[in-house]
Structures are given as C-alpha cells and as structure tokens.
Specification:
Elements lengths: L8 E2 L5 E5 L2 E6 L2 E6 L4 E6 L2 E6 L4 H22 L2 E8 L4 E5 L2 E5 L6 E4 L4 E4 L5 E6 L2 H13 L10 E4 L14
Antiparallel strand pairs: 1-6, 2-3, 3-4, 5-6, 7-12, 7-13, 8-9, 9-10, 11-12
Length: 178
Amino acid sequence: MSRIGKKPVDIPSNVKVNLDGKIVRVEGPKGKLEERMHQRMSAEVKDNQLIVSRLSDNKLDKSLHGLTRSLIQNMVIGVTEGYKKELEIHGVGMRAQLQGKKIVLQLGFSHPVNYDIPEGISVVIAKPTQIEITGIDKQSVGEVAAEIRHFYKPEPYKGKGIRYKGEYVRRKAGKTVV
C-alpha cells in the first residue's frame, strides 16, 4: 500500500467535496476547483474524510494512488488557505511593475518583457524587485512563478536574475589575471 495514498484526506467543515463519477469538485471559502481522477482510481467520502483507493496492486496503480490523494489534498488546502510563491529580482536596473492584468519586467534587455497574468492568479508587486504570486490552484501558481523566473534565470557569476525568495544561487569565481 502507498503510504501517502492510504492516508485519508481530512475535509474541513467549511469545504464541500462532490464526487461525480471520476470528477472531484472541491468548494471552499476561497473558490472552487475541479480535477479528473484517473480511471483506475476511486474515491469515497466517509465522516468528513475522503479515502482514495485503487483497483489492483500493479505498478501503475501504486504510482497513481499517492498522486491522486496528493492532488485532492492540494485542492482542499487551496480552497481554504491558498498558495503563494514569492520571487526576487536581483540586478542593477532590473524591476517589475503591474499594468492592469500584465506584468512589465525591465530585465536589461533592449525591450521590456510583458507577461499576461492568467485567470485565477493574483500578483502583488510591493517593491519593484519583489513579486508575490497567489492563487488557489497549486499547479497554476507554480507554473506562473516558473514562467516568470524563466525570463532571466539567476546566473552564477554575479547572481543577477529572477529567483525564488530564499533560493541560494551558488556563485562561481570569475576570470583571474595572472
């Protein structure tokens, strides 16, 4: 049995979980999420807990068991607390600003980089060098943060670029004159 898969998902009192065949719908104070389970997985609600079970003990089913349970757990956490990723911009003259539903990044290129914010994601730029991405879907929040970081990944010589808050960038020694 999968250690993660056999743990039940606790459902708080302010969250509603609806199982419609293979579709799991979770509704909470922050919003609604919907996920389609794999056909080899099944779920049932008992005593404010959702239990995920698998059809057999073959390798595919074992791998999907824990995954399905984790996805449902992430949905429950998302509609109650939400998810947040923070990015930092390091480098002289590099900054970000919000213009409507668009982030405009000045990253030292000859042109500004524009990024359209997807639906369901909110972005706050407190300082020009700090970006806070929040939302109820863990996958979407992580994807948006990764896409923004991809515009200018931190480089190892001066450490310039966009990085996650608290991320350590291993520095390399530059050229030395003998």
